[in-house]
Amino acid sequence: MAVYECNEQQFIENIVRLLNTLSDNRLIVNRRVMLCDDHKYGPSILPEQEFAKYAGIMERKGVKRSVYAKIPFIDEFHNRFYDAEEILHSSSSLSTPRLSIPYYRVEYSFSLWGNSYIYTFDVLFEPEVVIEKSRLPTGRMRRRIGIGSSSSPSSSNNNILIHILRFNQPDERMFNINIPTQVVVLDVKRMIRTIGIDNEKI
Fold first, then answer.
1. pLDDT band at 151 (very low <50, low <70, confident <90, very high)
2. 59-68, 131-140, 181-190: which has the minimum mean pLDDT?
3. What does the alpha-carbon distance between residue 173 and residue 48 come to, in Å, rounded to a whole number?
4. Among 44, 70, 36, 77, which Cα is nearest to 55's?
5. Mean pLDDT, to the nearest integer, of 168-173?
6. Maximum Cα–Cα distance for the chain, whole Å?
7. Contacts for 49 with CB less than 8 Å, ≥ 6 apart
8. Is residue 130 part of a domain?
9. Model confidence pLDDT, tens digit, residues 42-71
């Protein structure tokens, strides 16, 4: 069975062509949405207009340059603390721990007469930076941000005001493509594909 990977225009053109040849003028298309956190995307490779969303807590000298934390913050999605001036992402050193941007991989496909046609694209999570009280890191990470430890800390001492980086779910309308109304889109089970690193937990 042949598999044809298409861009969006090619995929839609193939659908229209096939609809014109089918007697009932209907076609079923599968859509699979997969949550990915495999370090494919990071702040180093973002264009300037997208990196601006992170500019309050990190900095870089240009696209595909190393990214550093400007201030201490917590990456809520990965449950990781970053200190000021810590390197967050370097596009030239993919094996080192770094901040990654989660995303959904959306795959549209259909099969007909022994051939499969596939169109895939990625939708990144939307960053949001807030300042909130959060539970203090423990052990070595407490010392890194200059907060003393106590043998029996009170609950008020367990929280500090700190910047939080959140990754919000993208609008599900971003998963749609402009296909003919005769097409029935069948959503298959969502899958999770994660390749992580050893993170310091907070």
1. very low
2. 131-140
3. 24
4. 70
5. 94
6. 77
7. none
8. yes
9. 999 999 999 999 999 999 999 988 999 999
Our measurement of the distance from residue 159's CA atom to the centroid of its chain's CA atoms, rounded to an integer in Å, reads: 28
pLDDT at 191 over 80: no
Number of structural domains (the chain) is 1
Residue 113 lies in a domain: yes
DSSP letters for 148-184: ---SS--GGGGEEEEEEEEEEPPPGGGG-----TTEE
Average pLDDT in the 107-130 region? 94
Per the domain annotation, does 140 fall within a domain? yes
The whole domain housing 106 covers: 2-194
Query: Where does the pLDDT of residue 199 fall: very low under 50, low under 70, confident under 90, or very high at 90 and above?
Result: very low
Q: How far apart are CA 78 and CA 146, in angstroms?
A: 23
CB 42, CB 68: distance < 8 Å: no
201 located within any domain: no
- 3-state class of 133 per DSSP? strand
- Please name the amino acid found at residue 18: L
Residue whose entry in the numeric block shows the structure tokens 């941000």: 145
